[in-house]
């Protein structure tokens, strides 16, 4: 076993409250986006919703706009 195997893995998954804070959104906004299929990808771990940090970054990058007239 290596030293890195003994270490606790980096936290890669966030719950809804943590993901919303990371994105600077409210929990309710993120939940509504999830229901409408407009938010970042998420995973279900049992009954729990989890967001992978890489998915949040990818979604944020895909949402980048240069003008308010840019189409969604």
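Q: What amino acid sequence fits the structure above?
A:
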């Amino acid at each position: 076993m290596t030293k890195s195997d003994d270490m606790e893995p980096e936290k890669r998954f966030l719950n809804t409250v943590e993901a919303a804070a990371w994105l600077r959104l409210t929990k309710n906004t993120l939940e509504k986006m999830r229901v409408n299929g407009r938010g970042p990808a998420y995973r279900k771990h049992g009954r729990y919703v989890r967001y992978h940090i890489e998915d949040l970054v990818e979604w944020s990058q895909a949402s980048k706009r240069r003008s308010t007239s840019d189409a969604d």
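Q: And what stands out in the fold?
A: Residues 11-62 form one domain.
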